[in-house]
Amino acid sequence: MKDGDPTNGKHPTPMLDPLEDGPWPSFVKGLKRLRDEGSEGNRKMMNDLLGQLNHSYQEQLGFWKGGTVSVFGYGGGIIPRFSEVADKFPESKEFHTLRVMPPAGYHYTTDVLRKLCDIWERHGSGLIAFHGQSGDIMFQGCTTENTQKAFDELNELGFDLGGAGPALRTAMSCVGHARCEQSCYDEVRAHRTIINTLLDEMHRPALPYKFKFKFSGCANDCVNAIHRSDFAVIGTWRDDIKIDQDKVKEHIAEKGRKYTIDTVVSMCPTRAISLNDDDTLEIDNRSCVRCMHCINVMTKALSPGDDKGVSILVGGKRALKIGDLMGTMIIPFMKLETDEDFEKLTELAENMVEFFADNALEHERIGETIDRIGLPAFLEALGIDPDPNMVNHPRTSCFVRTDDFDDEAAKWFERKAHAAGMTVGSDTD
Amino acid sequence: MDQKAQDKPRMPDEVGVPDPFQFMHPVMKKNYGNWAWHDRPRPGVLHHVAKSGDEIWTVRAGTQRQMDVFTIRKLCDIADEFAEGHVRFTTRSNIEFMVSEFAKVPALISKLQEEGFPVGGTGNSVSMISHTQGWLHCDIPGTDASGVVKSLMDMLHEEFIHEEMPNRVRITTSCCQINCGGQGDIAINVQYTKPPKINHDLVANVCERPAVVARCPVAAIRPALVNGKPSLEVDERKCVCCGACYPPCPPMQINGKESTKIAIWVGGKHSNARSKPTFHKLAVANLPNNPPHWPEVREVVRKIVATYKEDAKDWERLGEWIERIGWNRFFEMTGLAFTKHHLDTWTGARHTMNHSAHIHF
């Protein structure tokens, strides 16, 4: 239906109407359906929301401003939006978003989804985004008055607000253990343990700036943790890749030898794979960097090893202020299986957030703090030893004072000796 | 209960991240952490086999992300009637229906297609575009998000429902230079072209001036007295038009009908497979912000996707393909211009230059 009939009170939306056509599901159709068939509250709000959105399309400007809206007991989690053109579109003058944390891994039953819809139909606009870039379910479009009512019902259903502002933010985890054979740790447990332990930092924003955790079960990094989180937990393993040579032969029989060489052997980033004359694979596991490529191609023949764990990279963020940063490898490997392992991970997360709270400047992400103070100072503050896996290569600049080099080298050899199960002189001092 | 106690607000139950096991498909719950392998019987369908021998089929479909309750309920009806009552969403807002018998897959696919939900987004396809809020809800947007995505996905629909690309293609959009959409094989981001226009009457009351000065990445903002009022001024020779001052100080309007443009970036990659993760690089700037279909943006994206599809080797991501053929050929094949603006000038820029005799002809 094309709108604009002055008798029915609907705003004309000539700039949005063309987006109702085409094969991809149309959000405009959805907005109009809420306007035409939604609950009474939804209808009024969505008519004016459509009017304002059309106005934005015409003027090529946004017309929302922020403000302060919260629920009792919390300092964050609501994104307030007040219209700057409320005189024209009064029913959507308040159009706040509730950021709500989804179940780890984004699993739902239809039953719980229907309940979420019912709550939002009663108290909000009827528009829900699954999910925002922050990882939250975004309940979009709520008046200030209804914000508390909506939250109370969502909370009673077992959902909690996510993060906003200078605070711990909502985390994301991949499907992982629930369905993926490439997953190297229990993402749900890591995700819930860390966030629920640090929850106070989410609900009562008091950090210098945002702090994000993301959890990917392997180096394919399906939740984009290295780019997009301050603390990326990536699954990996340290023993050998598992090879089913019969399946290798089947793969070659199906795809061809040349194709297998071109797409598996030649694409290994460290030249760690070769194809034997009898169509079996040989892998130099000491040279393998666990990039996941060959496993992605040969999903039946190859799989991660048994001695699994995680790598942790710290400091990923987007453009502001010093430019895009990726996470830096801080913990090349730690086991994550026993209760003690999870306690150790949680402790590291707590220490990291505490360090951030104490040392970052206002509006500085932890990656920028590392840039400002240098990685050595950061590692020292957190009690983490330097490791060659933290760098692409050692420094190329000679501008460094090295008069304690021998002491530092002694520490390295001591750690190596301990790792090999030996005692050294200083142990008995 | 006395009146005072009744008036006491309900305090939140700080439950944190909900436990997903209460919602998870029983086959996934049973085989949690014990999967053996997977394959893809057809585009849009994943088949996972557990070490126990249990199997699960996943049918993936595209959504508009910003969904009305009617659409969500329709997806629930489909999940109840044609699947097994459990769904999940991917990080790119696709919905997944899990079934424990292959026999249920064809009818589920037909129903989804009939209701207008494209089945695909798996393997070497162009998946749903990850995007931001735009004019619909953001307080600082330079463009819309849902509209750009709808328009692009209409064009890329065939590449979503097939698996015919050399490798997966991850596209993102961002409605300001903060780039909430993130890195992508192709990133379609707002690029401002003019310094902020300052409403000096409002700055003193609305903005915390020292915080705004500190926010500028090139130290171009300084406090100033304008018409007798405390305000801020911008050294326009230094200003890089990034818009960082606009969120903390709305009277420093960065957007303009003509001056807000779109830039397209290529070669970003999150995965560690083969090459290490990479940032996207500038392909073209200064495209018009032209709703409701953004035809100029669409045309460039179409050209890049088609050229990559035609020329890249299997498993090469877009950035890896360019790495092989060289930027010279990328610009030649896509018909885009290489300009002085492609030469990085930011911190560490020299590391992006070619310090070798390696040349692509």
Helix content of chain A: 25-40%
Main β-sheet, spatial strand arrangement of chain B:
1-2-3-6-5
- The quaternary state of the protein chains shown equals heterodimer
- For the largest sheet of chain A, list the strands in their spatial order: 8-9-10-15-16
Topology order of chain B in helix (H) and strand (E) letters: HHEEEEHEEHHEEEHHEEEEEHHH
* Known CATH architecture of the largest domain in chain A: 2-Layer Sandwich
Task: Provide mean pLDDT of chain A, rounded.
Answer: 96
The structural domain count of chain B equals 3
CATH homologous superfamily label of the largest domain in chain B: Sulfite Reductase Hemoprotein, domain 1
Give the biggest beta sheet of chain A. Answer: 5 strands, mixed
Largest interface: A-B, 126 and 117 residues
Mean pLDDT of chain B: 96
Global geometry of chain B: globular
**Would you report the number of β strands of chain A?**
16
The amount of helix of chain B comes to: 25-40%
Question: Cα-atom Rg of chain A, whole angstroms?
Answer: 26 Å
Annotate the secondary structure layout.
The complex is a heterodimer of chains A (about 425) and B (about 350).
Chain A: H1 27-37, H2 40-59, E1 64-65, E2 78-79, E3 82-83, E4 97-100, E5 107-109, H3 110-123, E6 124-130, E7 137-142, H4 144-156, E8 172-173, H5 187-197, H6 199-203, E9 213-216, H7 225-228, E10 231-237, E11 242-243, H8 245-255, H9 257-265, E12 273-275, E13 281-283, H10 293-297, E14 302-303, E15 308-314, E16 328-334, H11 339-359, H12 366-373, H13 375-382, H14 405-419
Parallel strand pairs in A: 8-9, 9-10
Antiparallel strand pairs in A: 1-3, 2-4, 4-7, 6-7, 10-15, 11-14, 12-13, 15-16
Chain B: H1 3-7, H2 26-30, E1 35-42, E2 45-50, E3 55-61, E4 66-68, H3 69-82, E5 86-89, E6 95-99, H4 105-114, H5 146-161, E7 171-174, E8 186-192, E9 197-198, H6 200-206, H7 209-215, E10 221-226, E11 229-234, E12 252-253, E13 260-266, E14 281-288, H8 295-311, H9 318-325, H10 327-334
Parallel strand pairs in B: 7-8
Antiparallel strand pairs in B: 1-2, 2-3, 3-6, 5-6, 8-13, 9-12, 10-11, 13-14
